[in-house]
Amino acid sequence: xxxxxxxxxxxxxxxxxxxxxxxxxxxxxxxxxxxxxxxxxxxxxxxxxxxxxxxxxxxxxxxxxxxxxxxxxxxxxxxxxxxxxxxxxxxxxxxxxxxxxxxxxxxxxxxxxxxxxxxxxxxxxxxxxxxxxxxxxxxxxxxxxxxxxxxxxxxxxxxxxxxxxxxxxxxxxxxxxxxxxxxxxxxxxxxxxxxxxxxxxxxxxxxxxxxx
Length: 212
Hints:
Blueprint: H1 2-12, E1 19-22, E2 35-40, E3 43-48, E4 50-53, H2 59-64, H3 83-94, H4 103-110, H5 116-123, H6 127-132, H7 134-140, H8 148-168, H9 173-180, H10 184-193, H11 200-210
Parallel strand pairs: 1-4
Antiparallel strand pairs: 2-3
Helix pairs in contact: 8-10
């Protein structure tokens, strides 16, 4: 961070101060420090920086100030988790052709605060669109340490478990284990079937029918 500040100050000859932007609250570390310090061989390094927590910013400011670059983050802003607000953000995003590629990102954050079928209805968004987004590819990378193919399966399984938990509450460990043991084709089929489930019983029936 310090190196980037020095380079920016040298290039633009303007006062520079660093900013740390947090998108989602950290469950284990709710109190985020606003400085960095380190001591090495008797030398001390200290750097202050400004902390911006997106969940503390009013979503209404995005529309009032026409902050189009923040439209994808509206669902996780303060007061932005309502269906009507997300719909408004989608409309504004689609008015700017240069921001059209950010629609999957808005969909991704909307899935944290709204039910998946509602997000699908608002965004005309399905698993195919999600798989093509760079954020989905990042999720898949979580399991790459155990091999590319296995990592892809684990990433898909984790994503599906998150979606199901959002709809029906935390899954039983046995059910989650069954999902993680599915093959890639089975996970793909399950991902496409999620939107047809109306209750946990539908998921259990699907697993009985599609696993040995």
